[in-house]
């Protein structure tokens, strides 16, 4: 090709067009840089969210330990603090903590329970046997966390088991998760938390609630749980 042809206006324009395309679509193009910035922004937001979560959990654990240290012989404030923190951090609407004694569950703490539901439980005497196949019964049987996505769709509700009917119709309960409280692998109680919409708890939230349900984390709480079972 002649030197004149190589430097013709048409060829020069083609070369410039290709160069601009490489700039627009290359690894350092404005489009790619914008995409990278968006990714980094999302990663930073997620990291901040995880840090905030960790700080909240650390604060809640510190509060439980402070209550245990300041009131080593009083059980109810300890359980109330454990339940309140577990309910809040797991984004539940309300929850209850029950001890297992003589084949029945006994209410010992509650957090934000709807008044009509709480009143129905008081009329029932404060102790009961859980509905067969329900989250409480299954958590007790398996000694593992049990989640029910929708209480209103369960067999226990369809068969009009009183405690489940009250939970759904008086408490507005839909999604629930029950976590056993164990000492030396023996059942001593259950924590159950509820949402008033169908929205399953995440694995991380269930793991967190399980950690709060473990009273053997300290000697003081473990001893108090033993005393509660003997009384």
What does it look like?
- This protein has 231 residues and is α+β, with helices and mostly antiparallel strands.
- It folds into 2 domains: 70 residues; 159 residues, GAF domain (Beta-Lactamase).
- Helix content is 55%, strand content 17%.
- It has 10 helices and 6 strands; from the N terminus they run ααααββαβαβααββαα.
- It has a 6-stranded antiparallel β-sheet with strand order 3-2-1-6-5-4, sandwiched between helices.
- A hairpin with a 2-residue loop joins β1 and β2.
- α3 runs antiparallel to α4 and α4 packs antiparallel against α9.
- About 4% of the residues have low confidence.
Named CATH topology of the largest domain? Beta-Lactamase
Along the chain, the helix and strand elements come as HHHHEEHEHEHHEEHH
CATH architecture descriptor name of the largest domain: 2-Layer Sandwich
Tell me the strand percentage band.
Answer: 15-25%
| Major sheet strand order | 3-2-1-6-5-4
The CATH superfamily of the largest domain appears as: GAF domain
| Mean of pLDDT | 78
Features:
10 helices; alpha+beta; 2 domains; 6 strands; about 230 residues; Beta-Lactamase
Summarize the structure.
This protein folds into two domains: 1-70; 72-230, GAF domain (Beta-Lactamase, 2-Layer Sandwich). By secondary structure, it is an alpha+beta fold. It has a six-stranded antiparallel β-sheet with strand order 3-2-1-6-5-4, sandwiched between helices.
């Amino acid at each position: 090709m002649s030197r004149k042809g190589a430097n013709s206006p048409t060829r020069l324009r083609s070369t410039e067009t290709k160069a601009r395309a490489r700039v627009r679509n290359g690894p350092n193009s404005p489009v790619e840089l914008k995409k990278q910035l968006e990714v980094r922004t999302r990663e930073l937001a997620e990291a901040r969210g995880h840090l905030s979560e960790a700080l909240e959990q650390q604060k809640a654990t510190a509060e439980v330990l402070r209550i245990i240290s300041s009131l080593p012989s009083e059980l109810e404030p300890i359980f109330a603090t454990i339940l309140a923190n577990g309910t809040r951090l797991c984004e539940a609407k309300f929850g209850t903590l029950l001890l297992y004694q003589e084949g029945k569950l006994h209410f010992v703490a509650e957090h934000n329970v709807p008044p009509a539901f709480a009143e129905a439980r008081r009329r029932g005497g404060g102790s009961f046997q859980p509905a067969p196949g329900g989250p409480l019964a299954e958590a007790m049987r398996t000694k593992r966390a049990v989640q029910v996505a929708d209480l209103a769709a369960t067999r226990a509700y369809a068969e009009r088991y009183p405690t489940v009917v009250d939970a759904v119709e008086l408490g507005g309960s839909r999604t629930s998760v029950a976590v056993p409280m164990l000492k030396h692998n023996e059942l001593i109680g259950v924590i159950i938390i509820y949402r008033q919409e169908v929205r399953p708890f995440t694995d991380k939230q269930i793991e967190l609630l399980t950690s709060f349900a473990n009273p053997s984390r300290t000697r003081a709480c473990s001893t108090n749980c033993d005393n509660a079972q003997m009384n």
